[in-house]
Every structure is written in structure tokens, then in C-alpha cells.
Amino acid sequence: MIFIDESGDHSLVSIDPQYPLFVLTFCIVNKTDYARQIIPAFTDFKMEFFGHDLVVLHAHEIRKPRGDFSILLNPKVREHFMERLSELIAAAPITVIGVVIAKAKLKQRYAAPQSPYDLALRFGLERAFSFLHDNGQRDRSVPVIAESRGRKEDADLELQFRRITQNQHDWNLPHFRLALDQISFDLRFASKQTNSIGMQLADLMAHPIGRKILKPDQPNRAYELLEDKLLR
User: Fold this and answer.
1) From CA 173, how far away is CA 35, in angstroms rounded?
2) Which end of the chain is less packed: N or C, by CB atoms within 10 Å?
3) Residue 97 forms beta bridges with which residues?
């Protein structure tokens, strides 16, 4: 299964100088590992801190606690929470593809630049195809779950996704075209509130990757936890 989430916005009209990036993460996980290891581990984690499993883990709300995450305003609780979350992420058997678009540079380089989302999707899917092909996933149907961003945005994403997976772009990569013939992708959309552990993992990965690119010399514990999981 592949879960996709983002950090930052993909607008090229108004670029936030504090975070001029668009990050798209692809979290790839084996279905058996997901069902037997990841879901139970994160369910236990939620039970420990919230008393139920209905809480959806959002990186933004963890960084700036509110609602259910108000418990993190207590320094001791926050320290324990982050330690446990770090352990779960470190132990999760996942592969991560991170795509970062520097939006100002993209605008400067091209007179009519592509949408950062579309561009990141192309780069990420290229690597995902290669990974799946190299790991024996031929003749398989692979679910790809993306965050829903609204009816129009979802329709635009689905159109771009179909163009890529139907090989309507000139990739000049023979093994990539071969993979397209042997791997079927099932695109699904999930809202931000959907209690999908895979979507929550993808969300937790995106911001640390962006921070690493934006401020490479700044301590970044969250990035260190996922660095070994990045597909190089």
C-alpha cells in the first residue's frame, strides 16, 4: 500500500517566505506488516495516552497542541508521548519517498511552471514504480491512498495520476514503462479526519523532510528517525 500526504501548500501565486516549499511524501508499506504490526502498535499508543483510538494523529496539532492534544502542554506528558511516538516510527517497517519542491526556484526557472503537486506526484510515482518493480510486485494491484483536498482538486489529481500511470509522459525509462504494464494502481481518497494509520504516518513524515531541506544544520530528531527509511 502507498499513502500520500503533503506539507506546505502548492500555490505559486502566494509563497510563504517562512516555508517556501511543497513536500509530498509517499509511505510504502507491506499489507501484512501494516495489519499485524503497525495498526496494533499505534492503536495501543492511542489507548495509552487518550483512552481510546479515535484520535487522528496530526503533526501540526502535535507541534501546537490543542483539542485532544492539549495533554501535551504538560512537559512530562509531552516528553513521554514523543519518546513513545519516536519508538513507533523507528520500528515501523516502511519505505518513504520524499519529494521537495522549492517553489520560488521553480517559478524562476520556468515561464509556465507545472503545479508543484503535479510535479511532485510525477517524481514520487516514478520512484514508487521502480521500488515496486524491484521488490517483486509484478501483476499486483497496489492501493494508493491520497488526502482528499476537495472535489475539484481531487478530480485534477486523479486526471494527472491517470496520465502518469497510463504512460502519457515521456519518461525515457524502459524499466519504468515495463513496470506500468505489470503493476496496477488503485487511487483512493481519504479525508484528513479519516482514522487511517497509514495516512497519519505519511503526515508525520512530511514536515520533518521539509525542515531538513529548509534548515539542514538545525537539529531535527524527527528526520533522523525516518532517514534510514528514505528510498535513495
Assistant:
1) 34
2) C
3) 26
Helix (H, G, I), strand (E, B) or coil at 69: helix
One-letter amino acid at 73 equals L
pLDDT of residue 172: 55
Instruction: Return the closest-CA partner of residue 117 out of 4, 27, 230.
Output: 4
Number of Cβ within a 10 Å radius of residue 212 = 20
| Model confidence, pTM | 0.90
Percent of the chain at pLDDT > 70 equals: 94
| Sequence-ordered list of residues with C-beta below 8 angstroms from that of 44, at least 6 positions apart, any chain | none
Place of cell 513496470: 179
Q: What is the rounded CA–CA span in Å between residue 25 and residue 10? A: 14
Cell numbers linked to 21:
516549499
Whether 118 and 101 have beta carbons less than 8 Å apart is answered as no
CA-to-CA distance for 142 and 180, rounded, in angstroms?
12
Cβ atoms of residues 206 and 6 within 8 Å: yes
C-alpha span between 200 and 94 (Å, rounded): 13
Alpha carbon separation from 232 to 21, 51, 69, 127, 131 (Å, rounded): 20, 38, 34, 9, 10
